[in-house]
């Protein structure tokens, strides 16, 4: 490796070490790493900025503004009371409902938008029943990434793969969705043994929440109706953004702007609810990972995966699945998928049928997001929501549960691919 590659790897490792140790705030670690790369001339300022995924930041910022306005209607409190009453105050049933809702919404929206909507509901529910919300946040993060794997619009890597390979929304439902349903069923069983059977609430707390009137939590009837209507518009916008010819970030920013305009809520108050540290962390991380891509480190990793198989389709399929998952647990999956796409297109040019490889890449990159706290945008966003409400979801705590579960889901995906594409 040349000095630039070595330097980019060193900076990445130092940043990740600081993030894992939590001795320095992850946003500060990412920014300092990005600046170090510019100062030692691994990246120019212009190149560094080029590697920032502004579409992802726009989705985050737009939906943070959107949720900041929606929560002033009382919608999250109303839904929370309805959820608790529907589950009759049973903590496991509540978790089951929230996990399923998160998975479904993550398939229709993107998983970042979903956790921004589900997070405030979870906090309210746990306060009503005096429960620790961290197990709920953990299961919601995992289910958001699993649900997002099922469709074209659920996770950014799927959008990129669909565009490059010419796959439609229906193709993802045919190939990815079946194994996602199996994986979701398996993790629900695991969630029950990990969390469900250990949770309990007092009869007094259950009686108290069963007596609650959801309607009494409505803060503004007008804003509540507007919020419900706009959520439907946002869902449609995310599902149809490709047909509309606009990026998902444009949909999110438009939704946030319209909510502010139509609700007449003060923009200054909405901006106070934006998770600025999350946005700063991602901007810095994009630059740090971008240096690995710019210096050719990610390409070396990708080529190593290809060379190790010596052209064997089955071996390539499995190594691509597992390698994508592990790498996507620690690196952002967007630049990794962007690097792998031209490699798969080049293999396709040799006459090999690469259809199984596209689905291996999709499943590996999306499911791999559950491996660590920084593996996917949704993980970071929901952990920041938890921290803002006084609960700390640490990197190591997440790793102990997330990484083994990620490996299990990838093994299930591997078995599915073997059955679906026998070689």
What features would you describe in this structure?
With 423 residues, this protein is mainly alpha-helical. It has a domain at 54-156 and 164-276. 77% of the residues lie in helices and 0% in strands. The chain is built from 22 helices and no strands. It has helices spanning 3-21, 26-39, 45-50, 54-70, 75-86, 91-108, 111-129, 134-148, 156-165, 169-175, 177-194, 203-210, 221-244, 248-263, 267-272, 276-294, 297-309, 313-330, 333-349, 355-367, 377-388, 395-420. It is globular and about 65 Å long.
Helical stretch tally: 22
**C-alpha geometry:** globular
Describe the main β-sheet briefly: none
Number of extended strands = 0
Rg measurement, Å: 21 Å
Order of helices and strands: HHHHHHHHHHHHHHHHHHHHHH
Mean pLDDT: 87
Strand residue content: under 5%
Helix content: over 70%
Class based on secondary structure composition and strand pairing: mainly alpha
């Amino acid at each position: 490796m040349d000095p630039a590659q070595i330097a980019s790897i060193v900076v990445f490792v130092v940043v990740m070490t600081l993030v894992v140790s939590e001795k320095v705030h992850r946003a500060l670690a990412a920014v300092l790493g990005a600046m170090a790369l510019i100062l030692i001339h691994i990246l120019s300022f212009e190149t560094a900025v080029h590697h920032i995924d502004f579409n992802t930041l726009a989705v985050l910022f737009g939906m943070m503004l959107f949720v900041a306005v929606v929560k002033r209607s009382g919608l999250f409190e109303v839904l929370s009371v309805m959820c608790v009453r529907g589950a009759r105050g049973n903590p496991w049933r509540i978790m089951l409902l929230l996990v399923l809702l998160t998975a479904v919404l993550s398939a229709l929206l993107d998983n970042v938008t979903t956790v921004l909507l589900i997070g405030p509901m979870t906090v309210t529910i746990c306060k009503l029943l005096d429960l620790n919300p961290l197990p709920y946040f953990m299961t919601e993060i995992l289910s958001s990434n699993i649900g997002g794997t099922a469709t074209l619009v659920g996770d950014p890597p799927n959008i990129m793969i669909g565009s490059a390979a010419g796959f439609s929304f229906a193709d993802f439902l045919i190939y990815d969705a079946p194994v996602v349903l199996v994986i979701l069923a398996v993790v629900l069983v695991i969630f029950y043994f990990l969390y469900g059977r250990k949770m309990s609430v007092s009869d007094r707390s259950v009686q108290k929440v069963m007596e609650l009137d959801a309607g009494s939590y409505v803060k503004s009837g007008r804003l509540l109706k507007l919020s419900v209507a706009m959520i439907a518009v946002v869902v449609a916008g995310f599902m149809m953004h490709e047909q509309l010819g606009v990026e998902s970030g444009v949909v999110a920013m438009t939704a946030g702007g319209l909510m502010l305009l139509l609700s007449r809520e003060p923009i200054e108050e909405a901006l106070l609810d934006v998770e600025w540290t999350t946005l700063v962390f991602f901007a810095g991380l994009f630059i740090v990972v971008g240096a690995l891509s710019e210096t050719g480190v990610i390409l070396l990793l990708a080529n190593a995966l290809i060379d190790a198989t010596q052209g064997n389709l089955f071996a390539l399929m499995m190594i691509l699945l597992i390698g994508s998952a592990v790498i996507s647990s620690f690196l952002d999956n967007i630049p990794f998928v962007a690097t792998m796409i031209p490699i798969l297109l080049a293999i396709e040019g040799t006459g090999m049928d690469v259809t199984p490889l596209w689905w291996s890449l999709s499943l590996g990159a999306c499911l791999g997001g559950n491996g660590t706290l920084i593996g996917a945008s949704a993980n970071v966003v929901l952990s920041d929501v938890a921290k803002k409400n006084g609960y700390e979801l640490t990197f190591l705590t997440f790793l102990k549960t997330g990484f083994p579960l990620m490996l299990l889901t990838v093994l299930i995906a591997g078995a599915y691919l073997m059955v679906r594409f026998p070689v």
